[in-house]
Amino acid sequence: MQRFLSFAESQRPWLMETIEALVRLESPSTDKAAVDRCGDELARRLAAAGATVERLPQTERGDHLRADFGGGGPRVLLLGHFDTVWPVGQLRTMPFVEQDGRLCGPGIFDMKAGIAVAILAARAVRSHSPHRPHIVMLWTTDEEVGSGTSRSFIEEEARRCSAVLVLEPSLPGGAVKTQRKGCGDFELTVHGVSAHAGIDPGRGANAIHELAHQILAVQALQDLARGVSVNVNVASGGTRTNVIAALARASIDARVPTAEDGRRVESALHALQPRIAGTRIEISGGFGRPPLERTPQVQALYELAREVAAELGRPLAEGATGGGSDGNFTAAIGVPTLDGLGPQGDGAHALHEHVSADDLIWRAAFLAGLLGKLGDGKEVK
User: Fold this and answer.
1) CA distances (Å), 30 to each of 96, 139, 214, 345, in order?
2) Residue 21 in contact with residue 13, Cβ under 8 Å?
3) Bridge-partner residues for 281, per DSSP?
């Protein structure tokens, strides 16, 4: 472990320069040209680190990158994304700077610093570990917009691996994530009957009034004590104040801690019935990300990570989050997955986004140590 720490410390200038280069190449999910510019630089650095890099071409999204570092031990997938929520030009508002022990900039916490840490960890393992797992990295370009083009690649790669390590940001204090909620998006559409609101209102069936009933029914599905949240966050309907509304819509966000909770919520939404005569309702959508549940396999992988952290002189806590990541997909197909292995920081999707500069070197050594343990054939089943 100390060899990993010493190597990571010796590579501090490389690490800082790599993080800066990735952050300065702004890469909003919806701008393919910008994402591919960042991908070009990332591919160059992966190849320089010793990986065989494969581009997975996309038409509308940026090209995903698969990097194979080889190795004789069990296959381990390092997973993450280099698309961000920030538009090109955000650097003018959020410049890349180092101040008060923080590195700041758009996308640095979520999650370009994590990518740089992963590459440094792979270099450390190649240089200093007698036990080398077969390291594969998959860096995608559409996680922030639902992973529509990358999910199949992620699941296919994960099925060939003994474990998945996700370089998404750590929780406050550096804790890893052993639970993530499943994320669902549903659309509730109400069809009514239009009529003149003054002359003949009784001949109409007000879709907005029906939507109000349905919103209350949706709210009743929420069970925060169990970790189930179901919220209508966008609603619209009608055309003019003097016309009985013939159409209304609501967008529903659902978060669940277990797959069973997801089935229960989805079934309840599809069972909704109209209250007002003459209206009808439709439900579309579903759970785009299954939950990452704390299975015995996830727990075993966490315990192995905690053992590595202890050897490097730090405790390692675990926790849960309501947000989803691509680790949700790999955990749901039964591959042991540990999330939140990226550096400490704060401000994902916020103007104060930053990582802790002091955590970066330790985090790279810790990840290298975990890879070394997995390369030694440590069981996580």
Assistant:
1) 22, 16, 33, 25
2) no
3) 190
User: Under CATH, what is the fold of the domain 182-289?
Assistant: Alpha-Beta Plaits (3.30.70)
Break the chain into its structural domains and give their ranges. 2-180+291-375, 182-289
Q: How far apart are the first and last CA of the chain?
A: 24
Environment class of residue 98 by beta-carbon count within 10 Å: exposed (0-12), middle (13-18) or buried (19+)?
middle
Q: Which of 106, 139, 103, 133 is nearest to 17 (CA)?
A: 103
Instruction: State how beta strands 163-166 and 75-81 pair.
Output: parallel
In this predicted model, what pLDDT tens digit does every residue of 317-376 receive, in sequence order? 999 999 999 999 999 999 999 999 999 999 999 999 999 999 999 999 999 999 999 998
The token duo for 133 is: 């797992």
CA distance 339 to 314: 18
Q: Is the dihedral of CA 283, 285, 290, 291 positive or negative?
A: negative
Which homologous superfamily is 2-180+291-375 in? Zn peptidases (3.40.630.10)
141 DSSP 8-state letter = S
DSSP summary character for residue 173: G
DSSP one-letter code for 161: -
Q: What is the pTM of this model?
A: 0.93
CA angle at residue 292 from 290 to 293, to 5 degrees? 115
